[in-house]
Design a protein that fits this description.
Number of strands: 3
Largest sheet: 3 strands, mixed
Oligomer: single chain
Order of helices and strands: EHEE
Strand content: 25-35%
Helix content: 25-40%
Strand order of the largest sheet: 1-2-3
Number of domains: 1
Length: about 70
């Protein structure tokens, strides 16, 4: 929850994040990293709230973290 000093009620925030990481290689491009990060983001949204989904661009390994 987030409580602002000028606000009586708390605001409940959730965050879903998709992250692609890896070393640039001959088959990598910024567009590919963005596409993989976008796919990871939608996986995070699909799997629930407060999630971080990562994908290793060079190996395709996925990891989920729930907070």
């Amino acid at each position: 929850s987030y409580h602002h000093k000028d606000q009586e009620d708390c605001i409940h925030l959730t965050v879903s994040i998709g992250l692609a990481y890896g070393l640039p290689g001959p088959d990598s491009s910024p567009a590919r990293f963005l596409r993989l990060a976008d796919q990871a983001l939608y996986r995070a949204k699909h799997n629930g709230r407060n999630r971080l989904e990562t994908v290793q661009a060079n190996g395709g390994q996925h990891h989920t973290t729930n907070h």
